[in-house]
Design a protein that fits this description.
Putative pterin-4-alpha-carbinolamine dehydratase; Gyrase A, domain 2; four-stranded antiparallel β-sheet; 3 helices; 4 strands; single chain; alpha+beta; 121 residues
Length: 121
């Protein structure tokens, strides 16, 4: 489990410096490997694929709940069976720990519940 899941977003209305490319890349490598850093190191993103529209929208509703709970909101691009999630802390025009906390929480939406074995056919 990512250590980021034990944290919650903190307000940072310009009082926090954005992560450097190196800091962001370290967190990506250690905590949320499947996310990508954009060219300017100001955003992380990940595309998720689903079987159908219903699954896509259920996932999007989960993201909306996380955004409400953490008061940190992603940019979303939604289609029939795909959702692109992009995080950036707009108040600092770059990445903060809040972006990584929320990304870890979004990833956790797709994890099987703990204590239940998942069998592959």
């Amino acid at each position: 489990m990512s250590r980021l899941l034990t944290k919650h977003c903190q307000p940072c209305e310009g009082s926090v410096q954005p992560f450097t490319r190196e800091e962001a890349q370290t967190l990506l490598n250690q905590e949320i490997q499947e996310w990508c850093l954009n060219e300017t190191a100001t955003e992380i993103n990940r595309a998720y694929k689903f079987k159908n529209y219903y699954e896509t929208m259920a996932f999007v509703n989960g993201i909306a709940w996380i955004a409400h709970q953490e008061d940190h909101h992603p940019n979303l691009e939604i289609s029939y069976c795909r959702c692109l999630v992009r995080y950036c802390t707009h108040a600092i025009n770059g990445l903060s720990e809040n972006d990584f906390i929320c990304a870890a929480r979004v990833d956790a939406l797709l994890l099987p519940p703990q204590g239940i074995a998942v069998c592959k056919p």
